[in-house]
Each structure stands twice: as C-alpha cells, then as structure tokens.
Amino acid sequence: MKKLVIANWKMAPQTVKEAQAIFAKIKSRAARLRGVETVIAPPFIYLPLLKSAGKIKLAAQDVAKDDGGPWTGEISARMLKGVGVSYAIIGHSERREIGEGDDVIREKLYQSLFRGLKSVLCVGEKEKSQEAFPHIVREQIKKALRGIPRYFASKTIIAYEPVWAISSHSKGKADTPQNFFEMSIFIRRTVLDVWGKSAALRLPIIYGGSVNAKNAKGFLEVKGGSGVLVGKASLDAREFNKILEIADTI
C-alpha cells in the first residue's frame, strides 16, 4: 500500500506565483514516485489554479457543515469536488482552537464523506499528559464518528496530531515514533467500538506534528501507520520532496 503524505500549507504562501512555483517543484518529483500518494492542501483560493495533476491530489483545509445555504464565507464539499479536490482535512486543531466543536466537526465530516471526498479527521491532545490524552483522543473520535454510516470508513483517514507537537504552537517538538505506534493501536481500538473490526483494521492512520525530512522516516516506518501530515516543512519544496522520497522507499 502506498504511503500517504499530505502537505498542509495553511495560510501560505502569500502569492499565486509562489504557490505555483512550489507546486511545480513538488509535481515534478512526485511524478517519478510510485510508492507514495502525494496530497497538497493549499489555501482555498489556489485550488482552481493548481488543479489536481497526475501523481498529486488536492485537499481542502476545511469544508462547510452544510451543503448549501446563506453561510457567508463558507465553501461546501460539493463545490470543492467540482474543482477537482479529492481530500479534505476536518477538525484540525487550529480550527478547534477558534471554537469549532465536536458537533460541527461531525457535520463537516459527514458532508465531506457524503460528497465522496477522502476525509482526514484530525485528533490530538493539547497537553503532553499520559493520564489525560487517551480519554481526549477517544472522545474526539467517538463524537466525530457518531451517527456516520460504517460504509464511509473506506474514505476516512485519522491523523493523530498532538497539539503540543505542532511547530506553530510554542515551537512544538515532534512526538516519538514509538508513541505514534501506541496511539495508532489505541485509535484502532476506539474505531473498533464505533465501526467494528473490519473498519478498525483497514482505516489509515497518519501522524502530524513538526514532521520534517529528518524525522519523517521514523514515523513512516511505524507498523500500522500509513503516512504523515506535514505542515511548515511542506512549504519548502526541497524539504518536502525529501519526505516524499523517503516515503517512496518504505
């Protein structure tokens, strides 16, 4: 199975020219790699300009919780599908930070899945606490998946992204591959409770949080892991291409 490597550009770069230049460099390298699924999630306004091409798939950084209606500033999953988007990131910690609750995340996840987008559900704890985080992650998963039909499991991906490890939060430091391995087991057990054994065994689980070319190999080699979600490092085409090359060899 191909490793999944997702670039989350967040609110960058600041110009179309920069976005196209980074995209072109990544596209050139990705075209030569057979063992990796390369996904780029740029700001919304760049999606129609970059277009999904060959070995690169496009992702949205968010979707609206409704398919239509008078929601100023929102973009629906149907609209995204219409401009060639294949993936969507749902419930990222930076969305949760500005007040996005579990009910909204569940509605967004449903809309994304219903419209046929492969949906990356982000979960993770704010503080590095051995006692607290299993409960937090379990609740985030269960609340997000509650009421969503099991047949959507084939298009669902879970990204374990501890908030304390994200570089934009207090200069975060990446978690360890060993902890990601343990969390992947814990996440599968939680999915088992909701969707059953088949879904729990097959559902891809990826790691996010200060991933770079130096530490990516450890996370990509984790048994039961399916890839990585890359933030800041994905805006450096050379750095991100190194991560793709590493993923291609595993």
TrEMBL record:
The keyword Isomerase applies. It comes from the Bacteria. It catalyses: D-glyceraldehyde 3-phosphate = dihydroxyacetone phosphate. CDD domains: TIM. It is found in: Cytoplasm. Transmembrane segments: none annotated. GO terms for biological process: gluconeogenesis; glyceraldehyde-3-phosphate biosynthetic process; glycerol catabolic process; glycolytic process. Homodimer. This is Triosephosphate isomerase. The lineage of its organism: Bacteria, Candidatus Giovannoniibacteriota.
